[in-house]
Write a structure and sequence with these properties.
- The chain has about 140 residues and is mostly helical.
- Helices cover about 75% and strands about 0% of the residues.
- The relative contact order is 0.05.
């Protein structure tokens, strides 16, 4: 194994989180490579120091508060909150867009219904006929 491969696996080696064959390969490399051995010794020293620290207890209710905050952020805002969050200019733009859509729908609906009266096919009938579907 090369030094780069060894250094990426030293954490697992120090914690005993690998199979015996891989552990043996890394140990053999450390016997022959002083640079990797120094890194491994420093890692083991740091692990020993961290293991010697006292445990820290999480404050009571931390999990509930964390989950509550997460749920609040994941909830989609309701229409009322969305509308209240808009400025007056944005509210006007939304109303204008809705009214323009309604007007376009009314004009198109009237146009389609008027084309049907003179005996010619309206766009829907033309589309259905082109697909072989008769309404």
């Amino acid at each position: 194994m090369q030094c780069h491969q060894i250094t990426t696996r030293l954490d697992a080696w120090a914690d005993g989180e690998m199979n015996a064959a891989e552990h043996r390969k890394i140990s053999d490399h450390l016997d022959h490579c002083p640079a990797c051995r120094r890194r491994a010794e420093a890692l083991q020293a740091m692990t020993s120091l961290l293991d010697g620290l006292p445990g820290v207890q999480a404050p009571a209710g931390l999990a509930d508060r964390t989950l509550g905050c997460l749920r609040k952020r994941l909830e989609k805002p309701k229409m009322r909150e969305w509308w209240r969050g808009l400025s007056m200019a944005m509210r006007g733009a939304v109303c204008t867009a809705v009214l323009a859509g309604l007007l376009c729908g009314a004009v198109l609906g009237t146009t389609v219904s008027l084309q049907d009266r003179d005996g010619s096919a309206n766009p829907y009938q033309t589309l259905y006929a082109s697909k072989g579907i008769l309404p």
